[in-house]
Amino acid sequence: MKSRGFTLTEILIVVGILAILVALLFPVMQGVRASAKRTACTSNYHQANLAALLYIGDYDDHFPLVNHHPESIPDPLRDRTWVQSVLPYVRSLKMFRCPADYTRRSEIEAVFNGDVYAGDAFRLYYEATLRVNLGYNYLYLSPIVRVEGNWEVQPRAVSAIEDPSRTILFVDTVFSRTSSGLPDGGGSYVVIPPCRYSRVGFRVIDSFGLPPGTQVMAASRGWKPQNPTSPYQFGLAWPWHSDRLSIVRLGGAATVVTTTGLSAGCDVKAGWAGFIKDSNQYGWDLF
Description:
The chain is of the alpha+beta class. It contains five helices and eleven strands; from the N terminus they run H-H-H-E-H-E-E-E-E-E-E-E-E-E-H-E.
């Protein structure tokens, strides 16, 4: 029996059906990919949290130093970041990255080889640790303060934390933003909290737990909610998962929240001008 060919009308109908199927399946596939990245991100961050806890156990219950030699201009040959300190417990920088971050960054993966000559190797390794996606809540847990004209790191003890299950340890971050507001350059190894002060009656209390007038090293005083192109719009925190970002609490819980959820309990204003309104909801501080 001689087979007949397809007519143009039949071909167009088949193409149309396929186009409809693709249109229906594409959002589903996108959703599956996004969910997989979100799961991988929280899994990585959970491993990084365990590594930090192992470090804390080895260093007399104290949090990692955010920097070993903090300076206004970072010096790769002198300084060491908290990522470098914790990295031996996980062996790969991948555990400090979120797969949903599509921006360019250094691809150094191995633990640094100390036998390599000092120079570019030091710089590349150091800069790679500066651009991980896990932003350390350092201003509460390992603040850098001005002492007699010098910058000094003062890591807190875990025993000083009133509620570890509530306290934020790490947050999804961004390094910089383009002129159109898009993320760029990977993440940041530190994150800035949205609030600093609370008010009790007529008294203003510094939630950092520092003596009055203490100067802290921070590239930004709080969030910049009115500047949508600044990486400090959310204090370097960034929602890599659509409108949500990953956080890790000291108690070990890794989850995703919105930027609004990240600032819960805080009246966000530029320059830390907004006060902490509800310390039970505010998940950044010590108490």
